[in-house]
Amino acid sequence: MSALAWLTQLLEVLAALALAPLFLGWVNACRAWLQNRSAPSLLLPYHGIRKLFHKDAVIADCASPLFRMAPYVVFGAMVAAAAVIPSMGTGLPFRSAADAIALVGLFAIARVFMSLAAMDIGTAFGTLGARREMMVGFLAEPALLMVIFVASLISATTALPLIAERLAVQAPALYPSLAFTAVAFTMVLLAENARIPVDNPATHLELTMIHEAMLLEYSARHLALMEWAAALKLFNYACIGFALFVPWGTSLGDAGLGALAISIPVLAGKLAVAGVWLALLETVSAKLRVFRAPEFLSTAFLFAVLGLLVHLLLGA
Amino acid sequence: MGPLASPLNACLVLLVGWAALGLAGLARPASVAFVGRVLFPLGALIGLLLALVALTSLGSTPETVTLVIGLPDLPMHLRLDALSRVFLLLLGSTATGVSLFASGYFRQGQGTAPGLLGLQYHLFLASMGFVLLADDAYAFMVAWETMALTSYFLVTAQHGIPEIRSAGFLYLLMAHVGAIAILLSFGVMQGGTWLFSFDAMRASTLSTPWATVAFLLALFGFGAKAGLLPLHVWLPEAHPAAPSPVSALMSGVMLKTAIYGMLRVSFDLLGDPLWWWGLILLGLGLATAIFGVVFAAVQSDMKRLLAYSSVENVGVLFTGIGLAIVFHGVGMPALATLALIAVLYHALNHAFMKSLLFLGTGAVLHATGERNLGRLGGLIHRMPWTAWLTLVGVLAIAGLPPLNGFVSEWLLLQAFLFSHEVPKPFVNMLLPLGAAMVALAAALAGYVMVKFFGIIFLGQPREPTLAKAHDVDGLEKAGLLWLAVGCVLLGLLPNQVIAALSHATTELIGSAPDLDAQSWWLLAPLPERALSYSPVILLAVIVAVVALTFLVVRAVYRRPVRRAPPWDCGFVRIDPRMQDTAEGFGQPIRHIFTGFFAMERDLPSPLDVAPRYRVTVTDRIWRGLYLPIGGIVQRLTDSVAWLQQGRISVYLTYSFVTLVILLAVML
Fold first, then answer.
1. CB contact under 8 A, B567 and A216
2. Which of B213-217, B475-479, B578-582, B630-634 has the lowest mean pLDDT?
3. Would you list the DSSP string of B527-555?
4. Residue B463 in domain
5. Which has more confidence, A91 or A15?
């Protein structure tokens, strides 16, 4: 492993940690502009996290150690996920340690621990949120795996950095299968990150909330870690999307310092566009009833399967 | 030490040792102290030795021995080869943990006396060992039936309860229907030679139709034992009825003997399985997996939930065997090996995970006397050891890296990923969709396990009596710990495990995975294809990040932690009854998979003064298949019931008429 690979690795993890709240702020700001509201500061998520870190932690009487442990595990899983997603360069030292299936497993760790922590206090909202989160999870996870499978079939590997590398060097051809899976992936991204139309991050409306219901009992540093992990998850998903569908501009293999330097503004540009796109999607769609979420996600799953079939039929 | 130097003899001595321990229990049948504190730990020791013998001899050549007992023309043949060794390793290592736990578990009760229970338990273990060693149809069937009978008696240990008796009867019935099919399968496989040793079956070549008949009979027989759809009905009845260590053995090990039988028949006795047999297994396996996990999600009895989860895992195992047969049949040895390794690995994993979970429910059952999820909750405070060790099993079976369940899932998904290369049109399009089904089953297993753990151990106690629950003691703790450590190690050392299992694949299909011996930490089963996974590094990264985060937060953040009552949303009082119940947690599944269930709902009207909400979910297959078959059998037996007159003179007349007819035929 060259020093450059380790530099890329370090840079990616630090960038994910630092940029994730900014990306969240950018999406929120875009959404506000699209809805003719005056936007909050782009830095609002940072303020929120900082504020939370300076508060007294209040924990329920009946909380078990699992409840206090969960934010660290969730945060750790998200950082580990960021380490194997090629957001800037593909020559990552950790790329052989966890392929895309293991990446889905990392997201599952975070989801399971968050749900267990939500059930730990034993309030009605916590279990309700856990149940809904797991429902969204078991529908979204196979869809995400199918999306990854299509890309793996095209590039003959399941390691995400290699997928990005092989897709990026191929002649820019139009893959109909990838078009289908891109739709599926976008739907999974919205569902998994508690965005409209599956969940609404902006409200605490008890009938509809999923993600927020699980965090109700958290405060201070634990909540800060959970919020940060949620921002990281959105960032990670965006970067998976870039690796699968727009891998161009990332530093490939050992392409040198120059390519890495170029990849940073490229990533920023992609994130800016992705933020606008997400905000647009969220603005034009309405929140679904919780019972409609399975339909939404099974549509995503079917799109991914369709992508698979298209790939096998057309070989493209 | 002379004769013991041979692994087969050592195995034989150990299995006879188990039987002897059981007989020793008859000396003082009423003494819990003697049976529990002496015999069961010794049984655990024998299990450990058996696992060691199997493990150390994995690479050696097959060994055979012919016993002096048996039929006049057919003495019992035994054979110890790599496949047997892998499953003996599974049996021995799982039995170690379960026996340790059981030594503290069995108490004086209304049911079977401890000594008798010990006899049944140890004979059950020994008979499973003999199933794995048998090398002729007779020895196999004797061991197989001993296994069925001893486990029947163990299931009905609490025979005073009518439900348990009927569950036991259903189990016995299914076991025998399956055994008949296996017997018939052997009958077909001897191929007119009338030689019933497995060697003769290996040597004989069957025509395609007969080979298919033998395969389908074996599939029926072993499928009934394993719980393949639609023969799964006994599992959710028998597992809750049995004492928990017995459930652990039945689910963890006995189901695997059926997997062993299926592998033995398909790859060894029949020789080269036809590729399209694999499609049958694949279809049945996937249907079973989805069916099992969906039903597991709506259960409210914790042991029934685990039983349905076993149905799911059996489905996954059969899916893997099917995939291996397809790959093998079309001449893709590397991928066949991958699928077969996934099957063996998953069998080993499931033995550890499911035994651990069943023992966990046993501990909860002892501490609270409650199997119903709706009356549990908050036990992580009262039973921390049980809770945290069970959590390991829960995370493992939910397929989370870096634990063991993920490794076999990963291998199976990788095998599926290359299934589009199968040179059969149309089939190669359908096969990758199996990966979607496996992924769905795995994700649903996560749902089921969050429900299982969350409702039993987390939240607040739903009943006041739970405050008196006590944690497991020394030997029970040791049993749980053994299995939990096994789950972790199987997850962290995939290369070592696969290297051990590859002896069996070499034997069955003549091909072993090409592991990179240089990097013990990196699993890359197909070197020419870029796929790899390293649980050790993954775990190290997660632990490092968590530790670093914790230290940084601690260093920066010096505010105290305050304890307060949970937020009550402005209500006057929230109580534990307001938590989600097991039924509530299963509600999304009932909503999404409505078509799977036969549901009966009693919804109260808004004006009801004493409203009661009740929903019962039952298996459509029970009503659609078993009750009609039962009805037909009933009508047939009714139609010949007039023969049964109940008078001895009539029966003597029958004998006389029979003799006359026989004489007439003979002369």
1. yes
2. B578-582
3. TTSB--B-HHHHHHHHHHHHHHHHHHHHH
4. yes
5. A15
Specify the 3-state DSSP secondary structure of A172. Answer: coil
Mark whether B324 and B458 lie in a shared domain: yes
* Min Cα–Cα distance to chain B from A103, Å: 9
User: A119 and B458 in contact by Cβ < 8 A?
Assistant: yes
- CA nearest B447 in A: which residue? A134
Q: From chain A, pick out residues whose CB is under 8 angstroms from the CB of B406.
A: 102, 105
* Of the residues B557, B576, B599, the one at which a domain ends: B557
Q: How many CB atoms lie within 10 A of CB B312?
A: 28
Structural domain tally of chain A?
1
Residue A219 pLDDT grade (very low, low, confident, very high; cuts 50, 70, 90): confident
Contact list, B574 vs chain A (CB under 8 Å) = 123-124
How many domains is chain B partitioned into structurally? 2
Q: Is A134 on the interface with B (CB under 8 A)?
A: yes
B212 is a domain residue = no
Using the predicted structure, report yes or no on whether residue B368 has a pLDDT greater than 50: yes
Assigned domain for B102 exists: no
- Preferred mutation among A62, A153, A218 to probe B, highest tally of B CBs within 10 A: A62
Q: What is the pLDDT of residues A242-263, one digit of tens each?
A: 988 888 877 777 777 777 888 8
DSSP type of residue B231: S
Whether residue B440 sits in one domain with residue B342: yes
Last-in-domain residue among B557, B581, B603:
B557
Residues of B in Cβ contact (< 8 Å) with A61: 563-566
A72 touches chain B (CB under 8 A): yes
Nearest residue in chain A measured CA to CA from B394: A112
pLDDT band at B565 (very low <50, low <70, confident <90, very high): confident
Which among B127, B131, B104 has a CA at the least distance from the CA of B41? Answer: B104
> Are B445 and B528 in a shared domain?
yes
Question: Both B517 and B633 in a single domain?
Answer: no
On whether the CB atoms of residues B459 and B379 are closer than 8 A, the answer is no
CB distance from A163 to chain B under 8 Å?
no
Instruction: Give the model confidence (pLDDT) of B650-660 as tens digits.
Output: 999 999 999 99
Between CA B605 and CA B607 the distance in angstroms is 5
Nearest CA to CA, how far is A292 from chain B (Å)?
10
Q: Does A183 touch chain B (CB under 8 A)?
A: no
Residues B371 and B446 in one domain: yes
**Do residue B667 and residue B550 come from a single domain?**
no
- Residue B1 has a pLDDT of 45
Domain membership of residue B164 (yes or no) is no
Mean predicted lDDT score pLDDT of chain A: 86
Shared-domain flag, residues B329 and B400: yes
What is the residue range of B651's domain? 618-667
Closest Cα in chain A, distance from residue B232 (Å): 24
All residues at 6 or more sequence positions from B23 whose CB lies less than 8 Å from its CB, including other chains: B119
Residue B485: CB atoms within 10 Å: 14
- Mention every residue, 6+ apart, whose C-beta is less than 8 A from residue B207: none
A123 touches chain B (CB under 8 A): yes
8 Å CB contact of A152 and B417: yes
Q: Does residue B628 share a domain with residue B512?
A: no
- What's the confidence (pLDDT) of residue A205? 67
Q: Do the Cβ atoms of B580 and A61 come within 8 Å?
A: no
Q: Does A303 touch chain B (CB under 8 A)?
A: no
CA distance B117 to B35: 9
Q: What is the pLDDT of residue B573?
A: 72
Q: Which domain holds residue A273?
A: 3-314
Phi-psi region for residue B511, left (φ > 0), alpha (ψ -120 to 50) or beta? Answer: beta
Nearest to B593 by CA among B152, B331, B296, B356: B296
HSE-CB at B65 with a 13 A cutoff on CA atoms is 14
Percent of chain A whose pLDDT exceeds 70? 97
